[in-house]
Amino acid sequence: MKFIHRLGYYLGGFAIGLILLMFFLNGKDASCDYGPNARTTKNISSKPIQYSNKASVFIANQALDSTTIINLVKFGSVDFSKSKTKIDSCKIYYIENSYKEQELALEIKNCDSIATLLDINYTNN
Fold first, then answer.
1. Which one, of 75, 62, 56, 73, lies nearest residue 115 by Cα?
2. Sign of CA pseudo-dihedral 29, 90, 74, 49
3. Among 65, 50, 67, 68, CA closest to 119
4. pLDDT for residue 125 is more than 60
5. pLDDT per residue over 87-123, tens digit each?
6. What is the 3-state secondary structure of the chain?
7. How far apart are the first and last CA of the chain?
8. Adjacent-strand bridge partners of 95
9. ∠107-110-116 over CA atoms, to 5°?
10. What is the CA radius of gyration of the chain?
11. Rounded Cα–Cα distance for residues 32 and 37 (Å)
12. Apex CA 11: angle with CA 8 and CA 13, to 5°?
């Protein structure tokens, strides 16, 4: 069998496989969160978030809303060197992100059923 025929069969089977995957995975929330940063931010953003008094004051002063906070967590970068991940009960993560061209740092306590925003502040001020 010539190479061009083998290539045609391969591409035909590949196309059929892609079409079948589209039907099976259509409407499903399939994601590829394999890295530690992506797994951590997905875990935190999937839980309800409470705010500490210190974080509530900052959020009120800066006129931030809950959607902004969720997006800061979801698309942020976890700094594992500043995070406290060796704790048995609730781990504390340090997440960095930017908002309106200013760097923000969030400190989040991640428990089994709820996440608590302990502190949020600007890092470049």
1. 73
2. positive
3. 50
4. no
5. 888 899 999 988 888 888 999 999 888 999 998 888 8
6. CCHHHHHHHHHHHHHHHHHHHHHHHCCCCCCCCCCHHHHHHHHHHCCCEEECHHHHHHHHHHCCCHHHHHHHHHCCEECCCCCECCCCCCEEEEEEEEECCEEEEEEEEECCCCEEEEEEEECCC
7. 69
8. 78, 106
9. 60
10. 21
11. 12
12. 105
pLDDT band at 30 (very low <50, low <70, confident <90, very high): low
pLDDT score recorded for residue 95: 92
| Residue-wise pLDDT tens digits, 53-83 | 998 898 888 888 888 888 888 888 999 898 8
Tokens of 93: 């993560």
Q: What is the pLDDT of residue 1?
A: 82
The whole-angstrom separation of Cα 13 and Cα 7 is 10
- Alpha-carbon torsion angle 55, 61, 94, 116, nearest 10: 30
